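PROTEIN DESIGN WORKSHEET
SECTION A - STRUCTURE
LENGTH: 184
TOKENS:
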């Protein structure tokens, strides 16, 4: 559950209020005309709102669960990669490849079902191994993609997490003091 974001609410209220008062201002007045030119466009507002949401998201919320990606890919090829979401075209290629291999395997089994047992056993084994190999590769790839995504996030935000317990304050004689807070 996310906490109620007062900062987002206050930012949106300020943006709405600035637009309401800018629209109601008299265009003939030079003072109000100059303030209208500084109004934010709708694209700028959307960018600000998205930036505010991203900034307040914690690293834990941004991470993707490798086990969930593993299970989704076990359900259908490419779903785990799509869940991670950092390379969607690749996910769709994996989904398409999985669909083609599944359809080809089913057609191969149907064709080999009318053959004698001696002739069809090698074909069935080859089809089964190729389907199983693709599926195992897909599941492992989904797990690795989620792990690499999380590792990339950790590297990206490592400095900010490292500096979080440090604080810089000033003493009475205006000397900067660096402090560190350790919580167990």
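SECTION B - SEQUENCE
RESIDUE ASSIGNMENT:
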């Amino acid at each position: 559950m996310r906490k109620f974001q007062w900062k987002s609410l206050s930012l949106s209220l300020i943006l709405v209020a600035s637009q309401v008062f800018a629209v109601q201002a008299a265009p003939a007045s030079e003072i109000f005309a100059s303030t209208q030119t500084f109004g934010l466009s709708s694209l700028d507002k959307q960018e600000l709102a998205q930036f505010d949401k991203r900034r307040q998201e914690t690293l834990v919320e941004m991470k993707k669960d490798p086990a969930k990606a593993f299970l989704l890919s076990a359900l259908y090829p490419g779903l785990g990669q799509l869940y991670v979401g950092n390379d969607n075209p690749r996910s769709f290629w994996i989904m398409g490849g999985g669909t083609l291999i599944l359809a080809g395997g089913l057609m191969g089994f149907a064709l080999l079902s009318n053959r004698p047992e001696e002739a069809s056993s090698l074909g069935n084994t080859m089809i089964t191994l190729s389907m199983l190999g693709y599926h195992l590769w897909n599941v492992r790839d989904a797990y690795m993609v989620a792990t690499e995504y999380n590792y990339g996030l950790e590297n990206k935000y490592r400095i900010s997490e490292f500096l979080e317990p440090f604080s810089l304050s000033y003493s009475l004689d205006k000397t900067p003091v660096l402090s560190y807070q350790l919580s167990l």
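SECTION C - NOTES
Residues 117-163 form the longest helix (47 residues).
Residues 73 and 139 are 5 Å apart (CA to CA).
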